[in-house]
Design brief:
By secondary structure, this protein is of the alpha+beta class. It has helices at residues 3-13, 20-38, 42-50, 79-86, 93-98, 104-120, and strands at residues 51-58, 65-72, 123-125. The protein has six helices and three strands; from the N terminus they run αααββαααβ.
């Protein structure tokens, strides 16, 4: 399966008006598409087992609301919230070794883009 099929499933998940049962069904399809695209390497299988598109309570948003988005499975943690923290970290040595020409400003831009992609896939959940 191509990356575009995985992206299509991801965009479908972030659409409006999806019931909880439909979200659960589509989440299985999303993770199957993820594994088909990325292959069933140990790190991808781990990801598919631990990440889902689901609902979290987000009391930090005003007004306090429930949000649908990519999250840690079974937890009230959005991936975008974790990426917001990653954005504040210095350029890791492992990344610097991968490409010594990568700058701290490049790192900030990369992590910001990933965060914003995750936020773009979030939707307020109607109660």
């Amino acid at each position: 399966m191509s990356g575009s099929e995985f992206a299509k499933k991801l965009f479908e998940m972030s659409g409006d008006g999806i019931s909880h049962s439909e979200m659960k069904r589509r989440n299985k399809e999303l993770m199957a598409a993820f594994l088909a695209f990325g292959s069933e390497t140990p790190d991808n299988v781990n990801c598919a087992k631990r990440v889902e598109y689901g609902i979290v309570d987000d009391p930090d948003r005003q007004p306090s609301t429930r949000v649908r988005g990519l999250k840690v499975k079974g937890r009230n943690i959005l991936l975008a919230d974790i990426m917001n923290i990653v954005e504040s970290l210095d350029l890791p040595e492992e990344v610097r070794e991968y490409d010594p020409d990568l700058t701290a400003k490049d790192w900030k831009a990369i992590t910001r883009m990933v965060t914003m992609i995750l936020v773009a896939l979030e939707r307020p959940e109607s109660t």
